[in-house]
Design a protein that fits this description.
Layout lengths: L16 E8 L3 H13 L3 E4 L8 H4 L20 H6 L9 H14 L6 E2 L4 E7 L4 E6 L4 E9 L21 E4 L14 E5 L3 H13 L2 E6 L5 E3 L7 H9 L1 H10 L19 H14 L15 H18 L3 H7 L11 E3 L2 H4 L5 E5 L5 E5 L2 E4 L3 E3 L2 E4 L8 H4 L2 E3 L6 H4 L18 E3 L12 H21 L5 E3 L1 H16 L29 H13 L5 E3 L1
Parallel strand pairs: 1-2, 1-6, 2-3, 4-17, 6-18, 7-16, 8-9, 8-16, 9-12, 10-11
Antiparallel strand pairs: 4-5, 5-6, 13-14, 14-15, 19-20
Helix pairs in contact: 1-14, 9-10, 14-16
Length: 544
């Protein structure tokens, strides 16, 4: 397929740059999508808001930022040459190393020439009579394409702080999800951090180390397991490189896209207390990966879940010397209902004399004031305030773009009661638009790299089949979309993931409709379903 094979784009302003496909976002999803469509011979372009590639790992530069999936698994599998030549330094990679990897991939596969940086997409509109997507950016440029692929990321739209009085605060303030690229010197400064989610768990030990005094404001305690990170030795690296094929197969066939999580085969309730505690201790010592996979029913049975939850609480009480702090830091909800955190000396940090902990359930934050943070009890003076309040997950990035489908249908209206899609890949009423790891797919419930590759490869095959079959338009059917969304809800209600106010249900964003957004049935089940639909000539889709 060559550029000469492009369909005749009628009624299109030829002064506007036309493409076969436009991808929004140059993270790992966008880059692999670009590489795959380039191999098909399609004229393809990425529009990227940032100045470089990497997506999440370009923006998230907060202190201690690190992946919670093992390095050797959080990487592309599509090129064995890439697998063999790249070497990870640690079991869990830091943000700088992951960003270095992203840049290496972009250079190795000559992707940059097909990327326009500093181009934030403001709107995307489907022109029905021409069957093309028209995208406009903040620079005023207009791009048109037959296919539009949204690789905007699941955790890329920050939850902006909306505290009263924030404009009155005279110190410096930062958001973990949009941390400055330049180094910030905190020595001799008093720092307040609001939030104790994943980014806070990773950054708090470093902020405490580098600042004069750190005050942590916590609303909800989170479970965290030591990462027990370590450098990879040459023997480990050699083993992985020699066995990458089988490792990748285990990833694809697994529920969470990982090969090294040692899934348990028994119920937590069918073994003795002694055996159970020994197993939890073993997994605690091994580190984060696979802790809640110790037993088959931790995620679905409250009594089984409580055995794992109480073990972690006992560890918190053991580590944190102040019993009051330990109690505040001990989560009350089900373990795993929120994404489990991986840490390095997180709980130990609260033993430091220069670290204070405030339970905002007892003394809520009223506002920011010129000096710092005002609670119902007192005013805290801070030189720096850090907001670690998470992301508008899964939907935020898409809804920040004014997306219009057929008949002027707006995505914001369609998703006003929560996101709706078919397989997290396509949305009814929005033809020829695909979403990589969109809501309605497993995405954030496991190894995102495996989810990304599966989606990119499915979309690539779909487009290839469209081209081969002489089709110009594909759209999800409403009935199929409704059935899929009902299935997502049904599966979720049978698990404990549904039981707490997590970002999985949008509970961290005020006013967001509470809907369980990812598909919890497992990467393996989902992959099989997607393949089945493709083999049935894309059942649930209209192709014309």
């Amino acid at each position: 397929m060559t550029t000469e094979s492009h369909h005749d784009l009628k009624n299109i302003d030829q002064s506007i740059t036309n493409y076969d496909a436009i991808i929004v976002g140059a993270g790992f999803g966008g880059m692999y999508m670009l590489h795959s469509l380039n191999k098909l011979g399609l004229k393809t372009l990425i529009l990227e808001e940032g100045k470089g590639v990497g997506g999440t790992w370009y923006w998230n530069r907060y202190p201690g930022a690190r992946c919670d999936v093992q390095s050797i698994e959080y990487s592309y599998s599509f090129s064995d040459e890439l697998q063999q030549e790249w070497e990870w330094s640690h079991k869990y990679s830091t943000q700088p190393e992951i960003l270095e990897y992203a840049n290496h991939v972009a250079d190795r596969f000559n992707l940059r020439e097909h990327i326009r940086f500093n181009e934030r997409v403001l709107s995307a509109e489907y022109v029905e009579n021409s069957k093309i997507w028209k995208l406009e950016t903040n620079s005023g440029n207009i791009y048109q394409s037959r296919y539009c692929v949204m690789a905007t990321g699941s955790l890329s739209s920050i939850n902006k702080p909306k505290f009263p009085g924030i404009d009155s605060y005279t110190g410096d303030w930062y958001i973990t999800g949009k941390w400055p690229h330049e180094k910030i010197d905190l020595s001799g400064k008093t720092v307040g951090i609001i939030g104790t989610g994943s980014s806070a768990v990773q950054s708090i030990p470093i902020l405490a180390e580098n600042s004069k005094h750190l005050t942590v404001f916590q609303r909800t305690a989170n479970y965290s397991i030591p990462a027990n990170n370590k450098p990879l030795d040459p023997e480990e690296i050699r083993y992985v490189k020699d066995n990458y094929f089988s490792i990748r197969e285990k990833q694809r066939q697994g529920k969470a896209g990982v090969a090294f999580n040692n899934m348990g085969t028994k119920s937590a309730l069918e073994v003795s207390k002694e055996e159970r505690l020994n197993e939890y201790q073993k997994r605690w010592d091994m580190g984060y990966s696979g802790f809640i996979s110790a037993y088959t029913d931790i995620g679905i049975n409250e009594d089984a879940n409580e055995t794992a939850a109480e073990f972690v609480r006992s560890k918190i009480r053991e580590i944190v010397k102040d019993p009051v702090k330990a109690e505040i830091l001990s989560p009350k909800n089900a373990i795993g209902c929120k994404r489990l955190c991986a840490d390095t000396n997180y709980f130990e940090t609260y033993n430091k004399e220069n670290v204070s902990l405030i339970d905002v359930n007892e003394t809520p934050i009223v506002s920011l004031v010129p000096e710092g943070v005002k609670t119902t009890e007192k005013i805290f003076n801070f030189d720096v305030v850090v907001f670690a309040i998470g992301f508008d997950a899964m939907t935020g990035a898409l809804l920040s773009i004014n997306i219009k489908g057929k008949n002027g249908k707006q995505l914001t209206n369609k998703w006003s009661d929560g996101p709706r899609s078919y397989l997290g890949l396509c949305i009814e009423g929005f033809p020829n638009m695909f979403t990589i790891t969109g809501p309605g797919s497993p995405s954030v419930l496991g190894n995102m790299m495996v989810a990304i590759e599966q989606h990119v490869e499915w979309i690539t095959k779909c487009i290839k089949d469209m081209e081969s079959d002489g089709k110009t338009e594909i759209e999800a059917q409403e009935d199929a979309e409704n059935e899929w969304m009902d299935h997502i809800e049904e599966v979720a209600t049978h698990t404990l993931r549904y039981s707490c106010n997590s970002w999985y249900v949008g509970a961290n964003v005020p006013g967001k409709k509470r809907v369980f957004m990812p598909y919890i049935g497992g990467y393996d089940v989902y992959r099989e379903k997607c393949n089945e639909i493709a083999s049935e000539e894309y059942s649930g889709f209209l192709r014309s």
